[in-house]
Specification:
Largest sheet: 3 strands, antiparallel
Low-confidence stretches: none
Number of strands: 3
CATH topology of the largest domain: Ribonuclease iii, N-terminal Endonuclease Domain, Chain A
CATH class of the largest domain: Mainly Alpha
CATH architecture of the largest domain: Orthogonal Bundle
Radius of gyration: 19 Å
CATH superfamily of the largest domain: Ribonuclease III domain
Mean pLDDT: 88
Order of helices and strands: HHHHHHHHHEEEH
Distance between the termini: 47 Å
Length: 225
């Protein structure tokens, strides 16, 4: 573990084993104890804790937002891109325990791996120091992102549909291209088409993949002027 990474946590673990588990990718314990020594269970906890901490923060920070606006802000702040960006910002990838074979395959730099590890870290902070420890970490590393949200982000699928309707075009068409991975951790690839233009994206759910694809296509179309 690097000094920079330890400083980013700003928390002294009473149970260092929790931190070690949060930094252990499932490939590192493959075949041992059914993978229970990996960070997957902590990820499960961290996902819920992050959602709670962000939700209470948004209620406090944006007192005039209705539920829809709060929901869009929340979705953006807890998505894979944001989690992976936070993980990179604190050097989390370099601290992960990953076997050499997976290292060579570039697993350490995958957004999905970094996002999962970030959630696991939040879960470990919560179990070790309670909600306040998790809240301190999240508010420290999400502060700039929250403050940049002067306006609630639009749902990409809605925004793409509105773009099409404003120009008298047919509605965007979505198609599932592929479904991969185990049943407990699937990966979906979805394509969206609007006239001759199209985009494709992945996600852990079909809806996430659709939203990513819609955002890519909208950026592409708006970039064309």
């Amino acid at each position: 573990m690097t000094r920079a990474f330890a400083d980013a946590l700003d928390h002294r673990f009473q149970d260092p084993a929790l931190l070690a588990r949060a930094l252990t990718h499932r490939s590192h314990v493959k075949g041992r104890k059914g993978g229970l020594d990996s960070n997957e269970r902590l990820e499960f906890v961290g996902d819920r804790v992050l959602g709670l901490v962000i939700a209470e923060w948004l209620i406090e920070r944006f007192p005039h937002d209705r539920e829809g606006g709060l929901g869009r802000r929340l979705a953006r702040l807890v998505d894979r891109d944001t989690l992976a960006a936070v993980a990179r910002g604190i050097g989390l990838g370099a601290a992960l325990s990953i076997p050499p074979s997976e290292e060579a395959a570039g697993v350490r730099e995958r957004d999905s791996v970094l996002a999962d590890a970030c959630e696991a870290l939040i879960g470990a902070l919560y179990l070790d120091g309670g909600l306040e420890a998790a809240r301190h970490f999240v508010r420290r590393h999400w502060a700039e992102r929250v403050e940049r949200m002067a306006e609630a982000p639009r749902d990409p699928k809605t925004a793409l549909q509105e773009w099409a309707q404003a120009r008298g075009l047919p509605l965007p068409a979505y198609r599932t291209v592929a479904t991969e991975g185990p049943s407990h951790r699937p990966r979906f690839t979805v394509a969206v088409a609007l006239g001759p233009s199209a985009a494709e994206a992945e996600g852990s759910t079909k809806r996430e993949a659709e939203k990513r694809a819609a955002a890519l296509l909208l950026a592409q179309l708006e970039g064309q002027g």
